[in-house]
């Protein structure tokens, strides 16, 4: 029988255990190395900030163009930006690298291309047929300044007028100069030694593309024959020319002048115009000329098959109309309509049924590019109503003062907001479809709803659907309608916080799940809204007044007198410290004559009709304390699960139960921080007189 050696068995177990422990240690070390390789802390290099889309109206617009076949609108700006607009939801933003101002845009009609002329005397050919438009060719003028460009329909020749009065011809296909130059001294009378000024207009005769009409700033117009390289006719006028437009038959044209007149010329009668019109001039007796008016900056002459032609012009108002808003004038037959605009007119274009210049134009709309707006006027309806603009250009209608972004919202939220917002549509718009209808929609990459909320200086709040590339306004809320509006300067809101825009929104807190909305305004006011699909009339607006004051120890007045600390009502956790106000409080004064317990704004005490959408739940206002106005609210949060809203400023923090309309907590900053208050405040006496403005 073989002997059993227990020692060897133990040695084997020890060896196996050592190997196992070594392999385990090696595995742990590898795992540890793997853990060190994974950086769980996000670093700045893990992110890349890039612009994905640009919303709002083009800043400082300077040029306008329209493709009547593809129905695409282009807007150039003074910063070299290029915005393209098609059907609602189709937009594109491009930028010239030089950043020079865009002075003119010309579409290659129905070819998916665009020519831009910049203030740095460069021409660029844009290819619009690709997903991201890009510049195909560029051409730089070194010796002359570009003032005007013209590209005839279905032509490959681009005519470029310059400040010196010369005209160069560019081949659009190769984007090179052809070598054909119309010199100013050959275009005008040989006997005339004075320079005619810069080229302000170029156009070809609608019936003969070989005849070119050239307008010089000084008042001279030349009809140039491209084949014979000489002038057929020369037309001279005493007043400077701003623009020229053809009648579609090519037998007459119209000029606008610096004295507010329009002259209509027959092509074959160059001696004098056969008609002179002063649209806004006062007709004087005894056959005298009308008083001069402001310059007519642009005129367009559009014919109709069934009636009188349209003459559309900007400017030309009489000088005695001081303070009158900019106007667009539409003359049709014997009627003259003056359409006032909210901002200065940059440019306008008449949209016509046909792109062919030698046919009846049949105008149906006018695009008016304003300094801060884009307006489309319907020419086919009486009264010339405007089209409702579907683009999100009104985002800065009132300056944006705060903005919040919410992603992955409940799927029923956007339809709910849209349904109540659709009832807010204003009346008086044209019943026709938006005429700029080119382009195609791209595929939406996001599968989750996104909402942007903007607060504005006039107290309005706008909800935008940001799920697609472009913004779509869903709903607009006017928070200022809860307050009494001042009728005169003496009755302005009594606040030292802000001189203008007392209803401006500062902070927005929103719960997408419960749809509860809370806003904080610049006049130290908080409004809580509840979403409802039913219209209600609120007889008494619920209101709560809160005192928030930074408590300090005894301070010394200039006379050396010790003043006890100012008490802050509601200090601690007493929930009944503030009693809700059913009506706005009237002015009150403390024993020493200082304004006390007065809110900055006055809430309406009359019944308030509230449409479906967001309706007022509670208005909270911070009040004056011992002659000191309330400080602006700097933080705000709402918790709809508990029915709480909390807000604070540099003086303290308050918590309100908006269901019970009760203040639950009111703490001064010194109670929160104690001796570790991070803000250094200068001691001040509560007896220091500080009366509110107004």
Automatic annotation (TrEMBL):
<dbReference type="InterPro" id="IPR036322">
    <property type="entry name" value="WD40_repeat_dom_sf"/>
</dbReference>
<feature type="compositionally biased region" description="Polar residues">
    <location>
        <begin position="570"/>
        <end position="580"/>
    </location>
</feature>
<dbReference type="GO" id="GO:0031201">
    <property type="term" value="C:SNARE complex"/>
</dbReference>
<protein>
    <submittedName>
        <fullName>STXB5 protein</fullName>
    </submittedName>
</protein>
<dbReference type="InterPro" id="IPR001680">
    <property type="entry name" value="WD40_rpt"/>
</dbReference>
<feature type="repeat" description="WD">
    <location>
        <begin position="234"/>
        <end position="269"/>
    </location>
</feature>
<feature type="domain" description="Lethal giant larvae homologue 2">
    <location>
        <begin position="278"/>
        <end position="385"/>
    </location>
</feature>
<dbReference type="InterPro" id="IPR015943">
    <property type="entry name" value="WD40/YVTN_repeat-like_dom_sf"/>
</dbReference>
<feature type="region of interest" description="Disordered">
    <location>
        <begin position="557"/>
        <end position="596"/>
    </location>
</feature>
<keyword id="KW-0677">Repeat</keyword>
<comment type="similarity">
    <text>Belongs to the WD repeat L(2)GL family.</text>
</comment>
<feature type="compositionally biased region" description="Low complexity">
    <location>
        <begin position="582"/>
        <end position="591"/>
    </location>
</feature>
<dbReference type="GO" id="GO:0005886">
    <property type="term" value="C:plasma membrane"/>
</dbReference>
<keyword id="KW-0853">WD repeat</keyword>
<dbReference type="InterPro" id="IPR000664">
    <property type="entry name" value="Lethal2_giant"/>
</dbReference>
<dbReference type="InterPro" id="IPR013577">
    <property type="entry name" value="LLGL2"/>
</dbReference>
<keyword id="KW-0268">Exocytosis</keyword>
<dbReference type="Pfam" id="PF00400">
    <property type="entry name" value="WD40"/>
</dbReference>
<dbReference type="GO" id="GO:0045159">
    <property type="term" value="F:myosin II binding"/>
</dbReference>
<dbReference type="GO" id="GO:0019905">
    <property type="term" value="F:syntaxin binding"/>
</dbReference>
<feature type="region of interest" description="Disordered">
    <location>
        <begin position="675"/>
        <end position="694"/>
    </location>
</feature>
<dbReference type="GO" id="GO:0005096">
    <property type="term" value="F:GTPase activator activity"/>
</dbReference>
<dbReference type="GO" id="GO:0006887">
    <property type="term" value="P:exocytosis"/>
</dbReference>
<dbReference type="GO" id="GO:0006893">
    <property type="term" value="P:Golgi to plasma membrane transport"/>
</dbReference>
<dbReference type="Pfam" id="PF08366">
    <property type="entry name" value="LLGL"/>
</dbReference>
